[in-house]
Amino acid sequence: MFNEVDRYLAVTPGVRQKILQRENFNVFFHYGLNTFTGKEWGDGKVDPKVFDPEKQDTDQWVRTAKEAGAYGVILTCKHHDGFCLWPTATTDYTFPQRRIRTERATSYVRSAKAVKNTE
User: Fold this and answer.
1) pTM assigned to the model
2) How many structural domains compose the chain?
3) Which of 11, 19, 35, 115 has its CA 20 to 30 A from that of 100?
4) How many CA atoms lie within 13 A of 94 on its CB side?
5) What is the pLDDT at residue 100?
6) Any domain includes 16
């Protein structure tokens, strides 16, 4: 009879899982206030006005991920510091200008769809 530890140790990946592990990977984009402060770890106290994505090129991000062989891309839209990359009424800790907020929040998705549609 297996005890609890033996039961967990007996779990192994199936053939399809092994293929996915060997051949596919995703790219995570952690993009937020720390991109503009140069700090590795945010504390939720940075003024959202430092977020200035005018030179953001999400087409380049996604294209580079695809060229590297990535299976998919994932954008971290809210990280541990609480800053949101989408319009929300639940917090002021988001883009300071509504116009930019909407344009920048959707540019990543448009880029990913455009690359996918070229396959």
Assistant:
1) 0.68
2) 1
3) 115
4) 19
5) 55
6) no
